[in-house]
Structures are given as structure tokens and as C-alpha cells.
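Task: sequence design from structure.
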């Protein structure tokens, strides 16, 4: 078969147009007036997010029923990479809504010329403790919450006759030397959350000393949560029985075991938890501002919120009911560590650079 050249394609196209035109003329001449109406394209709202996000069950279908629009998910790496790309294209976005901005980057996103204000009604279902304070309050809607915590392989400690650590300070003691693995605050969202927690717990003048003691006690640092959890944690076949993960990791161990586990392998060290909130916002320059606003509001609906725990293993920010797995196996700390986004924005780069000097 001869290759189809550009000129032959043009000629074919012209012939096709002529045939169609003749057909239309014949139908008109014959008095037909019930020709089919042209198809109308389904509207699409684009959601820019991080790679680990999963649409909650039934959310896309219900949103389509409510609005007639489809949700297109655009995954753009981890949360830091996602936000960096969005900032580079501010004003001419590749999506309509952004989701996955967390406490550590909320002030930075709100201060940039990146987001459109939300309607007041969009935030009416959210408890005040999750709302941003200051100038960014009307730009970012809290969507989910979670806690970055040390997870403990209880079976390993029982088998080796070693007591499970209960407090952060114990991780710097000789009994627990060479047992902990964490992810880097430079390249990992939970790693950065843990660093922020240390600043809250030990203060500007003390967090570096804690990290130095942790380093001297043999802590292992990996680039990402995946590296630490799946390569180094003993539950996954590694050699470290203490891993930086999430309070919601134990129920995930059961859900993803495909029936091989009826109880989690891990417990959560509640003394080590740092609170984390993820936000959504409307990107400035979106060609679909109305649909974008509807999507952000829908992300706070019972369908979306109720589906978050078993799709993304995070907690809803509304009063949506929790699944049994979360009720049984995902404890929440009474007083997790946290800093307000403005304080984080002011100190984040300085803390990371100091951490580099200590650890790298």
C-alpha cells in the first residue's frame, strides 16, 4: 500500500466534503426536515492532583448526574512537583481545580497569583479548625485530614523481646538504635510534615538537637515514603521495624491484603503524630470557572467525603461517617503536632537547609 501523502489526504478530504455537500443538497431538495441534530460535546472539568490520588467510589458518576460534566484527573507527580508546575503555568492553567496542596505549601500557594476566591458557601460544612487563617482563607478549601506518625511492627518487637517505643525521645536511645527509617523532608511530603512536627515539639532552638541525636542513633533516611515503607519496613520484608507513615496505614494493611490479614501488622505511636490537611482551589484563568466551583463544592459532599477513607486512606473534614476499618484501626492523636501555614512558609526553607547540613 502506498503511503498517504499530505496532498492525497487533502484531495480525499475535498472529495468527502463534496460528497457530503451533495448529500445535504439532495436531502434538502427532497423536503426532508428531520435530520439529526449535531452531537453536543460533554463538558469536562479538569482536576490537577498528585499521583497518589484516587477518585472516591461513585464520585464521578454522581458529579455527572448533578452537572452533566465529566471529571478528568491530571496526575502531576508528588504534591511538591504538582504545585511547582501549577505555579509555572499560573494564569494559563492546564486544569480547572487543583487538589493536594497541604499545610506545608498552603501559604505559598495562597500568596501566589494562582487561585480564584471561593464562594463562602463552599466552606460552610468545614469545621473551623481546618480552615486557613488570613489572606488565603477564601482561596483554599480543606478537603481531607490525616496524621503523619511512626508506625511500629508489633510482631517484630514481640519476636525479638524488645519493648515497643511509646515516645519520640525513645527513638534516640540505645535500645532502639538502627531500628527507624524515615523519608526525607527535602523530597517527601510525610518527611516534611515530620520535620515541621519536630519544630513544633522542640522549638526553633531544639529541633536540630533532636535530629542530631536521631542521626547518631542510626536513623535511615530514604527519598520517599514508598522507599521507606516498601523497601525498609519489616512488615514489607525490610530490616527496620519503625517507619514514618500515617495513622491510617494500619487499616490499609488489612484492606490491601486481599483477605490475607484480618488485623493490621502495625500500631501507631500517637506521641509522634503531626497533623496534615489537604486543600483544593480554583485555578486562575480556568475556562470553566462555574464547573470548577461546583467541583470544589462537590468535594465536600457526603459522597466524596465518605469515600475518601477507603480510596485515599485519609479522614474526611466533614461529619461523613467513617468505615469500620477506620473506626477499629486508625487511631487519631488527641493533640498532634502542627504549625500554622504562615509560620511554615516563613521557616520552611531555613529548616530544610539546616536539616541538610545535619543529615546530608
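Answer:
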Amino acid at each position: 500500500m502506498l503511503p498517504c501523502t499530505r496532498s492525497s489526504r487533502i484531495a480525499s478530504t475535498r472529495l468527502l466534503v463534496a460528497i457530503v455537500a451533495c448529500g445535504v443538497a439532495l436531502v434538502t431538495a427532497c423536503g426532508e426536515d428531520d435530520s439529526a441534530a449535531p452531537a453536543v460535546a460533554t463538558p469536562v472539568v479538569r482536576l490537577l492532583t498528585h499521583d497518589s490520588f484516587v477518585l472516591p467510589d461513585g464520585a464521578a458518576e454522581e458529579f455527572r448526574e448533578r452537572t452533566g460534566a465529566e471529571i478528568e484527573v491530571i496526575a502531576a507527580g508528588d504534591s511538591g512537583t504538582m504545585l511547582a508546575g501549577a505555579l509555572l503555568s499560573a494564569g494559563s492553567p492546564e486544569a480547572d481545580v487543583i487538589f493536594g496542596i497541604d499545610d506545608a505549601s498552603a501559604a505559598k500557594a495562597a500568596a501566589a497569583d494562582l487561585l480564584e476566591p471561593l464562594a463562602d458557601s463552599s466552606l460552610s460544612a468545614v469545621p473551623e479548625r481546618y480552615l486557613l487563617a488570613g489572606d488565603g482563607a477564601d482561596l483554599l478549601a480543606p478537603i481531607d485530614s490525616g496524621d503523619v506518625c511512626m508506625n511500629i511492627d508489633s510482631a517484630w518487637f514481640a519476636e525479638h523481646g524488645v519493648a515497643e517505643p511509646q515516645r519520640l525521645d525513645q527513638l534516640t536511645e540505645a535500645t532502639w538504635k538502627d531500628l527507624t527509617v524515615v523519608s526525607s523532608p527535602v523530597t517527601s511530603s510525610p518527611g516534611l510534615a515530620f520535620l515541621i512536627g519536630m519544630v513544633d515539639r522542640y522549638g526553633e532552638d531544639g529541633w536540630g538537637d533532636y535530629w542530631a541525636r536521631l542521626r547518631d542513633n542510626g536513623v535511615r533516611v530514604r527519598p520517599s515514603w514508598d522507599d521507606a515503607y516498601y523497601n525498609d519496613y519489616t512488615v514489607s520484608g525490610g530490616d527496620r521495624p519503625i517507619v514514618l507513615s500515617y495513622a491510617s496505614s494500619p487499616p490499609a494493611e488489612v484492606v490491601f491484603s486481599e483477605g490475607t490479614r484480618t488485623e493490621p501488622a502495625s500500631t501507631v505511636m500517637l506521641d509522634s503524630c503531626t497533623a496534615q490537611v489537604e486543600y483544593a482551589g480554583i485555578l486562575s484563568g480556568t475556562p470553566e470557572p462555574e464547573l470548577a466551583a461546583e467541583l470544589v463544592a462537590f468535594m465536600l459532599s457526603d459522597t466524596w467525603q465518605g469515600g475518601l477513607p477507603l480510596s485515599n486512606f485519609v479522614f474526611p473534614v466533614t461529619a461523613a461517617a467513617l468505615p469500620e476499618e477506620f473506626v477499629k484501626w486508625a487511631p487519631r492523636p488527641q493533640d498532634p503536632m502542627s504549625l500554622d501555614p504562615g509560620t511554615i512558609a516563613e521557616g520552611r526553607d531555613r529548616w530544610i537547609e539546616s536539616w541538610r547540613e545535619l543529615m546530608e
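Residues 1-32 have pLDDT under 50 and may be disordered.
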